[in-house]
Specification:
elongated
């Protein structure tokens, strides 16, 4: 069993909430799902949260943009 600390759970919840919001935006406005747009929305909505979380772990936040390129 893997234990997750509160910071990780908050990050998962924030990301999930934004993806849920993007999902319903696509459904209601009949827009296509664009993975890079969904990822950018998560980054935009929670950049301060992820910056503070990753600064605690030593991960540089500018590297997060590279992960978005994988989704294209």
């Amino acid at each position: 069993m893997v234990e997750l600390n509160d910071d990780v759970l908050v990050a998962f919840g924030a990301g999930f909430a934004t993806l849920w919001k993007y999902h319903w935006r696509c459904v209601i406005d009949t827009e296509p799902w664009i993975p890079s747009a969904a990822f950018n929305m998560v980054q935009h909505d929670h950049h301060m949260l992820f910056s503070s979380l990753f600064s605690l772990t030593g991960v540089q936040t500018h590297n997060l943009a590279l992960y978005g390129d994988i989704l294209h």
